[in-house]
Automatic annotation (TrEMBL):
Alphabetical list of Gene3D superfamilies matching this protein: TTHA0068-like (1.10.3450.10)
InterPro entries membership: DUF309 (IPR005500), TTHA0068_sf (IPR023203)
Name of the protein in its database record: DUF309 domain-containing protein
Species of the source: Paenibacillus chartarius
């Protein structure tokens, strides 16, 4: 643990912001979510990643379902928590969801969202992973 940040959470931010590997985000966050008693905040973050993964793989209805569920879990959470700017991610996710709901009239290609890291300790931990990437324990296939 890095000053209050679980290794799995740091890896989640790394896979989300750097690798853009939303499948791996799901894998590491699900493990953390189960370890931490299934906290809705962690599940909401997991669901954002899975929603982006679904859209990237052509499953628009799955993406809508997951992003909707994510926002329901993230909405009651503080604007800033876990060293991240959660409110920005909520707003970006809501905008993405709105676009998905209108995709028939206004098609768009999948794009990445960013988790804005506010805590320098978390930022440094992610930077260390950039220098020495984690070994993926899970392979999607």
């Amino acid at each position: 643990m890095v000053q209050g940040y679980d290794r799995l959470f740091i890896e989640f931010v790394y896979y989300f912001n750097v690798e853009r590997d939303y499948f791996e985000c799901h894998e590491v966050m699900e493990e953390l979510w189960l370890e931490e008693g299934r906290h809705p905040l962690l599940q909401g973050l997991l669901q954002v990643a899975v929603g982006l993964y679904h859209h990237a793989n052509g499953n628009v209805s799955g993406a809508v379902k997951l992003l909707t569920a994510a926002l329901q879990k993230l909405d009651p959470q503080p604007e800033e928590t876990l060293g991240i700017h959660l409110d920005k991610l909520r707003r970006d996710s809501a905008e993405y969801l709105d676009k998905l709901r209108r995709i028939g009239e206004a098609p768009f290609a999948p794009y990445d969202l960013d988790i804005e890291v506010l805590d320098p300790v978390l930022c440094d931990a992610v930077e260390r992973l950039i220098a020495n990437p984690p070994v993926k324990e899970h392979e999607n296939g």
